[in-house]
Each structure stands twice: as C-alpha cells, then as structure tokens.
C-alpha cells in the first residue's frame, strides 16, 4: 500500500484557532519582550554560574532563548495535562480487565493456542462487544463473551490475530505515546493529523497480520460484528475497531485519513512567526537596554 500524507481538506477548528493565537502571541512578544525579561535574566545568570552554558549565548542570546524556553515549558505542561490523566485511566482500565477475567471456553482456548496467545488472554463475561490489547509492560489480549458468541471460528481467529499483532508490537504504549506527543505539539495542529495517520498505520498493519492467518471475509465479518452492538469503553487499549481506512483497505481501495489544509497552514504560520521572532530578538537585544536598565546584563 502506498503511504503518503493523505488527501488534503480545508478545515477551521479549535486547534487551528489555538495555533494562530500562538503565532499572534509570539509576534507580540517579539515586539514587546518585557515579559521575557525575568526568564532571560535567569538564563543569563545560569550561564554566568556555569561557564559551559555560556557558549550558547554565542549562538542564541538570552532573550530569544527565553522565548523558546517559554514555548517548550507550555508544550510540556500541555503534554502532561493530557498524558497523565490518560495514563491514569489506562491503568484503571487495565486493572479492571485483569480483575474481571474468567476461565475461557474451549473454543476460545483452542484459537488462542493456535496463535500462541495461551496464557496471555483475558476472557470477560460481559455483554459488550470488545476485543483489545491492553497493558504496557506485559500486554494481554482481552475478549468478551458476547463477541466470542457472535463470531464464527474464522472470524474469532481473525480478531485474535489482529490483537496478537498489537500485543507483539506493544501498541497500547505506542498509542499513548502518539497521543501525548500530539498534545505536546499542540502549537502545530498538523501533529494531531500525523498522529491519526500513525494510528491508522498501526491498525492496518494489525489487519495485514490477521489476513496472514484468516480470510479477508472473516476479518470483515469480525469488524461488522463489533459495529453491530454495544461495546465496552476502552482507555489505553489497542482495540478491534472499524475505521474508514481499514474498511477501504479490506476492499482493496486503501485510503488514509486526510490532513486538513487549515492545520498545515496554521502550523507553518506558527513556525515562520517563531523563527522570525527569534531572529528579531537576537538582532535587537540592544534595543531592550535603551528602555530597561535592569536588562543591561541580558
């Protein structure tokens, strides 16, 4: 399958608006850098204390460094605000699944042994339709009684093979990392679109692994079954779910999630404004000294 950037679509949404607001704020700080003075002064004092760091000032003076550090701090805070709750929810979800495990029926045991999943399978006596890979350090595959009852032998094998691929690649951890990195790079909304592309590639790769052991129709049937009924909410898990890209892949018409043009333009705007602001601050430090005597050391 050819993997590119996907098709482009126009869009205007909150991430795009946030990115443009970031660009405007960076431009404002370049024009009125007074809020950067305390951080720039602290950075300069640190360079005075550790001469090795002083070499950095030969390439990037304190004021533009303060601007970049401010953006990095905001990005890390945003990543933590998103990542920590997701990690907590995933941990709770994993513990919940581990506590609900029941002895698997013989048909499921046979399918699991065929795929080498025996001992790494969690059988849930639940009416929801769910097959997922969960856990970060020692991932396992979970499947509900309702889903097992709805699938025939080939469909069950396809669903388990899909999740086995997620297990082998430790995809639950990959999903969490992708989402946290996308949140950290929120100033560049195109990062979220790339995150969706990466998640789609993980799912399609798992489908390819499933097709190596089960017919295409069996995997399609498992996907349709999952869509047809209630499902368990799953946090922090790589689950058997249906998306446009996966259905198109099964139909031999591969597509990728689109990259909205608005997110690409907004991301480029933030990058260009930031570079321009850094260059301007690096070239105009002497202007700060004209109206702020406290900043002479900066």
Give an overview in words.
This protein is an alpha/beta fold. The chain has a domain at 74-258. The protein has helices spanning 14-31, 37-49, 51-54, 62-100, 106-114, 145-150, 153-169, 171-184, 190-211, 216-227, 244-250, 261-283, 285-291; strands spanning 8-9, 101-102, 121-124, 131-134, 140-144, 237-239, 259-260. The strands form 2 sheets. It has a 5-stranded mixed beta sheet with strand order 2-3-5-4-6. It has a two-stranded parallel ribbon with strand order 1-7. Helix 4 (62-100) packs antiparallel against helix 8 (171-184), helix 4 packs antiparallel against helix 12 (261-283) and helix 7 crosses helix 10. Mean pLDDT is 81; it is low at 1-11 and 287-298.
Keywords:
about 300 residues, elongated, five-stranded mixed beta sheet, alpha/beta, disordered N terminus
Write the layout of secondary structure elements.
Elements: E1 8-9, H1 14-31, H2 37-49, H3 51-54, H4 62-100, E2 101-102, H5 106-114, E3 121-124, E4 131-134, E5 140-144, H6 145-150, H7 153-169, H8 171-184, H9 190-211, H10 216-227, E6 237-239, H11 244-250, E7 259-260, H12 261-283, H13 285-291
